[in-house]
Amino acid sequence: MISLISIILWFSLSWATSDSIHGDFFQCLSGQTQSSHPISEVLYTPDHFSYSPVLEAYIRNLRFNTSTTPKPRLIITPTHESHIQAAIICCKKHRLQLKVRSGGHDYEGVSYVSHLSFILLDMFNLRSITVDIENERAWVQAGATLGEVYYRIAEKSKTHAFPAGVCPTVGVGGHFTGGGYGNMMRKYGLSIDNIVDAELVDVNGRILNRKSMGEDLFWAIRGGGPSFGVVISYKIKLVKVSATVTVFRVSRTLEENATDIVYQWQHVADKLDEDLFIRLIMDVVDRGRSGEQTGRATFIALFLGTSERLLSIMNISFPELGLQSSDCIKMSWLESVLFWTNFEIGTPVEALLDRKPQVLVHLKRKSDYLKELIPKAGLEGIWKKMIELKKPLMAFNPYGGKMAEISPSATPFPHRGGHLCKIQYATNWEEEGSEAAERYLNFTRQLYNYMTPFVSKSPRASYLPYRDLDLGINLHGKNSLSEGRTYGIKYFKSNFNKLVQIKTKVDPGNFFRSEQSIPTLPYQMVTKCVPLSNILLNSHCFNEWYM
Hints:
Elements: H1 4-14, H2 24-31, E1 43-44, H3 51-57, E2 74-76, H4 81-93, E3 97-101, E4 118-122, E5 129-132, E6 137-141, H5 146-156, E7 160-161, H6 172-178, H7 185-188, E8 195-201, E9 207-208, H8 210-213, H9 215-220, E10 230-237, E11 239-240, E12 245-253, H10 258-268, E13 276-286, E14 293-303, H11 307-317, E15 329-331, H12 333-340, E16 362-370, H13 376-389, E17 393-398, H14 402-405, E18 421-429, H15 434-450, H16 480-492, H17 495-506, H18 523-528, H19 532-537, H20 540-546
Parallel strand pairs: 2-4, 3-4
Antiparallel strand pairs: 1-2, 5-6, 6-10, 7-11, 8-9, 8-10, 12-14, 12-15, 13-14, 13-17, 16-18, 17-18
Helix pairs in contact: 1-2, 2-4, 13-15
């Protein structure tokens, strides 16, 4: 923390020759905040001794923690809503890009990296969680982590939970903004299906709730990405869980009939009892001491019930796995979060409050959706390709249950009925340098390309929180709408059209923008070409206006 006078002096000296921003930017920040909550105490300039520790504390992908990674001109770590209002108003006034980070798990670093001059609004201090068990509701600030949310709910009740992700260090803000899936989605849907209110700071610095923002904007911020404002907090609906749940983790190699078991998993995973969620992970492992490698299928499950009932379901619906009573582990729902995060059995649940990930690596992620079964011959070819590449793994997360009951237009997240599962391609590496990065990025892209015949088409759909800049980047120039449509249709399908309309209404100047944000409609295009749906469905009007 530094004094406002020294901040103004630093900006005046360091930015005087590089752009038009001077100390009046900081005077703007100070003038927009309350004296009881001085913003100078939450500002970090690059010469501040805490700047690097604050910046690096929530970088979860080492690809974006290098000496050449673009850094923010200033970090603001708000402790009060007025700090967010000031950041928006003053960045807008001075034409500075504002990036917003909650947990730092953005796979492409979009929340904290930009090649343009930018300010970072880091939400980690806003982590309050207020649980109301009697009404089965909770208010959760955007800077809280999922582990903190789960822990605070369990403090009040051992039979309540919330359907969200399995990684406890993920920030609430980014997770909820993109959809929020987890291992209870077949029972209760996504996180966004269980959000009943929110507090948001809009482009004009106003604090809005569901009633004052209106249903369109409330719809957009539940799965449409961070293109509409800065969410301060969410009101969530808690769900019931049994006091004891059952988990298992069972692996089978190719020599143990993995292909046939995976083939059968495809048939049943989305049709099983909605209390049962079985994730499939396909990866490559060494085969003994020979140095040869083989494929491995690992089945990880959460069952919201007893092991006896689980075994009964499995023996009827999925006997091919050969699940035994010795594979089943009984525990509380809160303990199951640790199990799914690969903590040792018996790890104290207080580990969920630790904001540091168990490991930090360089990584690349991509995603797909499976709508049809992959034939056995296809699976055999996939195994062969994976063994050739060695590194990437694939995680298959089954749908069905509640996911199939919710309309694709109920929220911006469109991937509902008709989807067997979501696929995540995951590649981690520890080697430093651009050559290593390019090599592993290429491995991931090769596997993704190989999967083309088997996955969804027209569009080839993707999951927004698995951010993937390979799908396209928006430069926010004259082609912004067509560039946005390239990736937007993959993430949102036909919901993209409605998101563009809402974005144009609530943020016509496109202040909340990023490499893959929702674009706005240029004013001239809207007035010249009607109806609006024609503009969104094709680029004819757009191209005509600019030719």
